[in-house]
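Example record

One chain of 471 residues, shown exactly as stored in the release files.
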Amino acid sequence: MKKEHFDRKISEIDVPKGEVFNAIDKGINRGIKEKTRSKKSGFKMFGLVSSVAASLFLASGLVFAPVSNVLASVPLIGSVYANFSLEIGSQLMKSELITKINQKASSNGVDITVTSAYYDGNVIGITFKVEGDKVSLSEIGDQGPETGYRFHLFDGKEKKQWPGTMTGLRKTADGYVAAMEFYNQLSDLPNDFTLPLTFTSITGVNGEWQFDVPVKQIPPTVIQVDDTKVSSEGEYAVEVESISKGKATTLISYSTKLPLIGKEDYLSIDVFDSAGSRLGRGSGNVLSIDEKSGTIKKELRLLLPNEIDTDTEFITIKPILEKYEKPTVAALAQSVPFSIESERFNYNIEIRNIEQEGNEFILEYVVDTENNSTIKNDVVQNFADFIMLTKSEDVHYKENGELDMNNTIGHQIRSVDVKRLKDDKRLFRSVYRVKNIDTFDIDNYSLMVPFGTLSLNSKNTEMKPIKIDLK
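Predicted structure tokens for this chain:
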């Protein structure tokens, strides 16, 4: 992916059915543009799923004290951050900014102890230890997730869950240990915050372990910014509002403006220090969306998992604009050859031949992009793979004439075979298998052509960078 596109789409979903599949399609397409990044050892990315909340028994009291030199005498906590490659936690541990906690809960012969926590930027990190004769990773089987435990935040309702990162349980001499990081998607939280956390299963043992984890935000340095950059055509804009410098994270608050026709476009930012080094790959979330006067304004926040070096004199924020469009629908009830054109871009396909062999419908076509040399062959192949056949009566539109993907998803027929016939002309042959062949009539069908796939892999629209002085 060019950026973390999936999180952005999830933040905007109202009706999951169509938008989720649309986001998956975009995610597949974006994946072609970026090499796979190395994964941190032991990590799992997740979105928390709701479960039934119940009243739980809290087994012991709370010890809440700044770590300072205490961490040196608690090797278990230090080893968790080091062994699991927890970047934020490791940085804060070196600065003695991790808080030691000793909050314990017991259920069904299993003890869970929350051992440490931190709150930097909008990230809350937690480590915990599990003990008990019933605890064994070899006993999970099909009764538990790969990580070895299940849990939820707050009251377990899905809308209240936060995304984050979790490690699997690891066996040590002191018991089983693991760590989690949660990303607050709210615009703000109090500096002193209590995070309700409930475990519901440990290595297949069901139970109730409830915690109220106290966290205190490490005071950040906030720089107010008021700078706006617009695209050459003036329809798109990025405004940086503030930069919050934490001890191990950096939060950038900004807003974007997009035209209504481009509400599916992706306007993001990359950040570089004064030496020209990129400040990591961030995790962003949308705080609000406001649609009025033909424009879409979004309030966003970008988390960078590292601090800005004290020697950095300025940072440069480079806006990145990727334009997208929903699939173009064209009826097949017309004489060949004919063209299907993108509504927003200089792309089209020319249908050369349509034929039927038994229960297979065969389509031959040429893919024409504005500049064939700028889009790789594997991208064009992926585009061809997702040209769908569907009954025209199953294509639905909203009142404003926009394609209604929520009600159209699920009716498409995907090709069972797509072959490139001539590399130089990008001539393809797609085969679709049709049910109820006796009643099949090609004049009753349409093609859904995902030109947005090609647009995501074309050259980005250039926008001027924003330079922010830090000293």
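Notes: Helices lie at 5-12, 16-31, 75-83, 87-94, 377-385, 405-408, 451-456.
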